[in-house]
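for the writeup, i need someone to sanity check this before i put it in the appendix. the sequnce is what the collaborator sent (i think, or maybe the updated version? ugh). structure was predicted straight from it, no edits. if anything looks off just tell me and ill rerun, i have time this weekend
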Amino acid sequence: MKRKLVAMTLAAVMGLSVAACGSSGDDKPANDGNKTEDNTGDCHKKYILYKCIYTHLLNEYLSLSHYVLDGRTPDGNYEIQKSHNILYCDTEAFKKVKHIQFPKQYVLKTEIENRIVKPIENYFAIKIESDTKKKWVNNINDFINERKYFIQYFSYMLKKIRPKIILVVVAYGFDRMVLCEVAHRFHIPVVELQHGMMGPMHIAYNFYKKLKLRSFPDYIFTFGQYEKEHTRFPIPDAHIIPTGYPELESNYNKCKKKKGSKKVILFISQTLVKIAQFANAVAQGVDASKYEVIFQLHPFEYSSWEKTIGKYLTHPNIKVIGSFNHTIYESLAQADWVVGNYSTVLSEAQMFNVKVAILKFDMYKVSSYLYKNGYAILVDSPEKLLKEIEEDTFQPNREVSLFEKNSLEKMQQSIDKIIEINESC
């Protein structure tokens, strides 16, 4: 019998923290949650099944037996998963059952300031505010103490399951960094699945030289060649494997291009007021008989957008979409233009034969490879975007795809090869 493979997703935790990294905004519940009927005959969902867009297709495809380990959401709850292989990470219960308790340790504020804060201030010629320093001190001390419990928890789990390989999403999450460290003690290879923008601007993946870090994965499966060639990973180049993005590939095959009577300008929200204001200005400037403006909310905004950015989306020609029942890929299939700041969706849009515009503010340089390589244009005002849309002369680079094809097959092949290499050592 094959030894277990652990597919680590921590999907619920990851799904609620990926905005700073440019999520595609589509971690969503599955549509086949159980339903119950009340006495009036009305049908309502008892619960909605959650699925992680980075792992659920791989979970269904893998030929090896495996578990999916999921964590709590920031509000302390667990998402009900569709997978039958789910395990829920619960360190608190583990502490109680195993009667584990460590004495609290604290690093002095002066030590943190001297070893961490001041070098950062000096290097970047900045002044870090006192409130931020205080948060850093508290967070560092929390991490130091929590790390002990995670080491015990993951050590116990890996001894029981004895996996041949571990897959993680968002490897720079604190608990996953500790998992990497523990896995290396057990000589178990760790692979990270790319979840969003990488490239030269992402601080978690760019290092000044190759390093052997206990808390960093051994391998990374990237969306395509771009990430491998333009990100300064600390691991060997041979360990960076372009495999593609299963969720995008699957939805591209499902969502055929839908053309309406009007051209569609799709704005991708990232909880930034500026994007909403920009979209409203464009809606005011276009001919409503020729163009429709769609504003796709980030999942973070579904329940709160009317209070946070609703007052900026007042034009009647703006259609706001914020529902788990309507995917970002359905919107991309409708769109003629896709407009955003630094979302991964701006890369994914390349698959859908649309034109992409990057808004020149905030973190736009994260998407610089798109406008520097002809995949997108850079605009700094609604007037500039309107001019580009009306003239319609931009011809995007379609010669090289940013995403590998046959992603699930490539992932399975790479996993098998990594296991084989590790067992031969």
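The CA atoms of residues 74 and 390 lie 44 Å apart. Residues 256-391 form a domain with the Rossmann fold fold (CATH 3.40.50.2000).
thx in advance!!
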